[in-house]
Amino acid sequence: MTKSNNIDTKVIHSGELIPRILGAVTMPIFQSSTYEYESQINYHSIKYLRLNNTPNHEVLNKKIAALENGESALVSGSGMAAISSTLLAFLKNGDHLLTQSCLYGGTHGLLTQDLSHLGISFDFIDGNEPDSWKAKIKPTTKIIYVESISNPTLDVPNLEAIVQFAKSNQLISIIDNTFASPVNFRPLEIGFDLAIHSCTKYLNGHSDIVAGAVIGKTKHIEAITHKLNHFGGALDAHACFLLHRGIKTLAIRVRHQNQSALKIAKFLQGHPGILNVKYPGLETNPQFSRTKKIFDGFGGMLAFQVKGGAEAAIRLIEKVKIPVHAPSLGGVESLITRPWNTIHANMSSDERVRMGIADDLIRLSVGLESADDLIEDLSQALG
Q1: How many Å apart are CA 301 and CA 49, to the nearest integer?
Q2: Hey, which residues are catalytic here?
Q3: What is the rounded distance in angstroms from the CA atom of residue 342 to the CA atom of residue 328?
Q4: b vs e for 159-177, b when ≥16 Cβ sit within 10 Å of the residue's Cβ?
Q5: What does pTM read for this prediction?
Q6: How confident is the chain (383 residues) per 10-residue block, as mean pLDDT?
Q7: H or E segment to which residue 212 belongs
Q8: How far is the CA of 125 from the CAs of 145, 165, 293, 301, 351, in angstroms?
Q9: Domains and CATH numbers, the chain
């Protein structure tokens, strides 16, 4: 294909096999676990489904790397497989990492319940207070880990400062870019070493698979590949096909969701029944100017609190008719949930409060429905 740096073209054509397989315009599903031996140089290069290197994987890896403008990429069986394999590729017993204080519940659990048992320690940092980070660093600190938009508080850390801090302290900088997607933000362009996605969400966009990916320099991806191969976090061929297909509509989906989420956030901000709205695209957001500088859009996720506390939040969720009451995000259908008792339910109440997750916080993943219909639905539910 003609080289293009436009993401609308990349999602369709990057990584595709040329010449096409028997002329097929759509990448076939290679439903084979085993491949003929072709004098591969080591164990990790043997063609085998569990090693995530079948033709379906290789095309996906090249496409996803192109979307983030990275050297290499690796798809995995889930977002958590990508996160855990990445962290354990660079951390060992006695090592230490820094991470922002509010994280996706699964990542928080991995740090507090699993890595600590392996002798890996961590400290939380305030992503918006760079002057406080130095005091937390140790001789054993190897990684700084953040989210481009925090789940579920929709906070955008000082990402440029994190990159500078990582470089000046010889740390590997890792960012979960799931909420933003490559359409809105490409972390490697501002200097992050590795970007991770739960491809279950925006990259696939249809709520029908679980997958993950990590993108970065080839030397880093190779190390993560070896770790993932040992853990067995493989993505099956049919899921590869669905993710490949889903990515082709990523740009057009995310731009629609950006516009709808901003419109809904403004409506909620002006409603007398709303206590506050968390959305990085609102000009009243304290991180708006900084985010606008490096993001191309603000995403399809927003969070808000209604007046009346947890009971009022529960009533609203019960009364809306369009959003589905379910966890996850990034699909074509709008999803609504209360993180307190779903995606962050494995934490103690004190941990949730420390992270800013109130029991009346509602998280809305805006889908592809009419924004006007969603606003009308929220209005009747608030009434």
Answers
A1: 34
A2: 50, 104, 176, 201
A3: 10
A4: bebbbebbeeeebbbbbbb
A5: 0.94
A6: 82 92 91 83 81 93 97 98 98 97 91 93 96 97 98 96 98 98 98 98 98 98 96 95 98 98 98 97 96 98 96 97 96 94 66 78 97 98 94
A7: strand 212-216
A8: 10, 12, 23, 23, 14
A9: 7-247 (3.40.640.10), 250-382 (3.90.1150.10)
